Amino acid sequence: MRERIIVLYAATLTMVGLLTGWAPKAYGVPVQWSGNGHYYERFDRLHDYDQITWLEAKVVAESQSYLGAQGYLATITSQEENDFIINNLGGEAIRGKWFGGFETSEGVWNWVTGEPWSYTNWDWDQPDNFYQTLDGLNFHWRGTLGVWDDHPLTREISGYIVEYPVPEPATILLLGLGGLTILRRRGS
């Protein structure tokens, strides 16, 4: 069953790449954090020339699913969650990856999910609004690992982090029933 889910998941990623022109490479399979039960996954560029804007990453993340749950750019609402992502999604490799914070007006930050903006982990000189545009959130490419940086929503960088909420029990039931149906048909 797990192998079938992974094959379907890989096929979905391939279709997303064909439709958007961006070829993501998943870092392993999604990993679950016990703090909220959600799954997290890092996507990197497939080629050195592949880059993605925050706006594109948001669309691609929302087109992905895992165990029946729709993905979105990750929201990080505690130091524990930030540490989990660093420790489980490749450490240094998270540098320069988009996640789900964005500005709606200068200095007003929001999460893509609408959760309260109560925790931050800005680098010492951030947010700096260097380009004087509305920005998206990414892990800073320099300095202390796991600190945040702001870049224009249209700037291209090397990847993104997706979060998948806990699948609804009905979704898990439907996935299980679908798997049983397939097995029964093969057995016939």
Task: Please tell me about this protein's structure.
The chain is α+β, with helices and mostly antiparallel strands and 188 residues long. It has one domain: Roll (Mannose-Binding Protein A, Chain A). It is built from four helices and eleven strands; from the N terminus they run H-E-E-E-H-E-E-E-H-E-E-E-E-E-H. It has helices at residues 2-20, 54-62, 79-88, 169-187, and strands at 24-26, 31-32, 39-45, 65-66, 69-70, 72-73, 97-105, 108-111, 135-139, 148-152, 159-164. Strands 1, 2, 3, 6, 7, 8, 9, 10 and 11 form a nine-stranded mixed sheet that branches. A two-stranded antiparallel sheet has the order 4-5. A hairpin with a 6-residue loop joins strand 2 and strand 3 (39-45). The radius of gyration is 17 Å and the shape is globular. The protein starts with a helix and ends with a helix.
In short:
With 188 residues, the chain is of the alpha+beta class.
List the helices and strands and how they pair.
Layout: H1 2-20, E1 24-26, E2 31-32, E3 39-45, H2 54-62, E4 65-66, E5 69-70, E6 72-73, H3 79-88, E7 97-105, E8 108-111, E9 135-139, E10 148-152, E11 159-164, H4 169-187
Parallel strand pairs: 7-11
Antiparallel strand pairs: 1-3, 2-3, 3-11, 4-5, 6-11, 7-8, 7-9, 9-10
> If you consult CATH, what is the topology?
Mannose-Binding Protein A, Chain A
The amount of beta strand, in percent, is 25-35%
The overall strand count is 11
Structural class: alpha+beta
Distance between the termini: 18 Å
The fourth-level CATH homologous superfamily is Mannose-Binding Protein A, subunit A
Number of domains: 1
Number of helices: 4
- Describe the global form: globular
User: Which range best describes the helical content: under 10%, 10-25%, 25-40%, 40-55%, 55-70% or over 70%?
Assistant: 25-40%
By CATH, the architecture is named Roll
Calculate Rg over CA atoms. 17 Å
Low-confidence stretches: 1-11
Largest sheet: 9 strands, mixed
CATH C-level label = Alpha Beta
Instruction: Spell the H/E element sequence.
Output: HEEEHEEEHEEEEEH
Mean pLDDT: 83
